[in-house]
Design brief:
Layout: H1 6-16, H2 18-27, H3 45-49, E1 68-73, E2 79-84, H4 86-103, E3 111-115, H5 123-137, E4 142-145, H6 151-161, E5 167-172, H7 174-186, E6 196-201, H8 207-217, H9 222-225, E7 226-232, E8 236-240, H10 243-253, H11 256-263, E9 270-273, E10 280-284, E11 288-293, E12 299-311, H12 313-322, E13 335-340, E14 346-348, E15 351-353, H13 355-362, E16 371-381, E17 387-395, H14 403-420, H15 422-427, E18 436-440
Parallel strand pairs: 3-4, 3-5, 5-6, 6-7, 17-18
Antiparallel strand pairs: 1-2, 7-8, 9-13, 10-11, 11-12, 12-13, 14-15, 16-17
Helix pairs in contact: 4-5, 13-14
Length: 461
């Protein structure tokens, strides 16, 4: 399959996008001298999206050419607007099609697609509904129901309609979908009656989690029946798990020494395949990712800073075979692996949780007197494979770690997250919005060692 012509996209953006020409000038780049991809500067949200007006980032400087806009929130909670046309959505629909047709057999089986992402103007829900409806319009026997992230309504829809279809697909953020399944079991729902499949996004999860949720949902084959998507608000779905990528991930999950040699890290990332004709990935500085994509707002070497890397199809498949595992057939598409969001955020129920939001909660009177302001934000998984948001807070010298102080800090952090982070307020169920606060002494060697630059986030535990 041919790759996106990056230099051609660059030249088109120079000619048609007002902001891009100004961006190049600010970078000191003469477009006439650019003749190869490496000569094109990386763009970021800070130096491009946040610097130039939205209409100027659209082709022809015309925002009114967009068919729809969606929003996502940044660290301040102020929504960022992402415009797109119906044509822009085609590349995203293709990723859903690969999951539904080749993973779920949706061409031959009637399917109830239940969208469990937050609705409203949020990116996840809008994109998912649009993609599933387009598959239906293209001839797949798929019916879309969109109860959003309302567990009672999801269970009502499944109970009334699920039995009328060959299979039911739940689409949402991993911890929320698990909550739906667990709530159904508690209410006597027989998930096996609905041949449940799952489409998940926004979180990295373990293979143990996949197996546990598959068992509870009655999903017979976790490799083909549960698929994770990798996406960004800027350009929608960028890649998706395939049965091939899941088989390879499961092989590597049981062999950490091999996984480390492939991914350069002991953590197990999400492993997806992508179409380089529409979304062209490349490795960026510091073990991060950049991609290029055409659209209403063209993205040319856009540095999203997610930790990860790119692996050619032939290279990864050959590696598996060299180590005694034949992953079988699958699309001959390259792989991209992603450890999670950038080093400065934690993803929880699909919402990006930013340290800046937590900082405000710890600066309140009654807390700042006994807390230093340093903390570690992370998500942790319990024995039941449920995830919770945890904030490890450093106490001031001599301060006591009392339950009352932990509760006060948790309540304050929750209030600021709801106030400042609109994704958190809309995506995270009320019962999960209060973080677990752990109080540690000053200069605690595990979380707050002396002489080391502090990191406010840590990989999932």
């Amino acid at each position: 399959m041919s790759e996106l012509d990056l230099v051609a996209l660059f030249r088109d953006a120079v000619r048609t996008v007002p902001a891009y020409a100004r961006f190049l000038a600010a970078c000191g780049v003469d477009p006439a001298e650019v003749d190869r991809p490496a000569a094109i500067p990386l763009m970021t949200k800070a130096d491009y999206h946040q610097r130039y007006p939205l209409p100027d980032r659209c082709r022809g400087g015309r925002l009114d050419a967009a068919a729809v806009v969606a929003v996502s929130s940044g660290s301040s909670g102020r929504p960022t607007v992402w415009p797109r046309t119906v044509q822009d959505e085609r590349a995203v629909t293709a990723r859903f099609e690969q999951v539904f047709e080749y993973g779920f057999g949706a061409a031959e089986h009637s399917t109830l697609a239940v969208v469990c992402f937050a609705l409203g103007n949020w990116v996840g829900g809008l994109y998912t509904v649009a993609a599933c409806r387009q598959l239906s319009a293209d001839g797949y026997p798929i019916t879309v129901a969109a109860p959003g992230n309302d567990i009672d309504e999801i269970l009502r829809v499944v109970g009334e309609l699920g039995g009328l279809y060959d299979q039911t697909v739940l689409l949402g953020y991993p911890p929320f979908v698990k909550n739906v399944i667990d709530a159904g079991l508690a209410r006597g729902v027989d998930w096996t009656a609905y041949d449940v499949k799952l489409v998940l996004a926004g979180e990295v999860f373990s293979e143990q989690w996949r197996d546990l949720v598959a068992a509870r949902a009655g999903t017979a084959d976790p490799e083909s029946g549960i698929a994770s998507l990798y996406g960004t608000a800027d350009a929608g779905v960028l890649g998706n798990e395939t049965p091939l990528s899941v088989r390879i991930r499961r092989f590597l999950a049981g062999r950490p020494e091999l996984a480390s040699s492939v991914f350069g890290d002991a953590r197990l990332p999400t492993l997806v395949q992508y179409d380089p004709a529409t979304r062209l990935f490349e490795a960026a500085p510091g073990g991060t990712l950049a991609f290029s994509a055409d659209g209403t707002v063209p993205l040319v070497r856009y540095h999203i800073a997610d930790e990860g890397g790119v692996l050619p199809y032939e290279e990864l498949v050959a590696f598996c075979r060299e180590h005694g595992f034949d992953p079988g057939a699958g699309p001959r598409l390259p792989f991209v692996y992603v450890f999670g969001r950038s080093l400065f955020t934690v993803s929880f129920f699909g919402a990006n949780v930013y340290p800046e939001n937590v900082t405000v909660g710890l600066e309140r009177p009654g807390i700042s007197e006994w807390a230093t302001g340093r903390f570690v934000l992370r998500t942790v998984e319990d024995a039941d494979r449920d995830r919770r948001l945890q904030v490890v807070v450093e106490l001031a010298a001599g301060a006591e770690p009392t339950p009352a102080r932990a509760e006060l800090a948790a309540t304050s952090i929750r209030a600021e997250l709801l106030r400042l982070n609109s994704e958190f307020a809309h995506y995270v169920p009320a019962g999960h919005q209060t973080p677990e606060v752990v109080l540690r002494p000053a200069d605690d060697p595990e979380f707050f060692p002396r002489g080391v630059k502090h990191r406010y986030t840590r990989p999932d535990s």
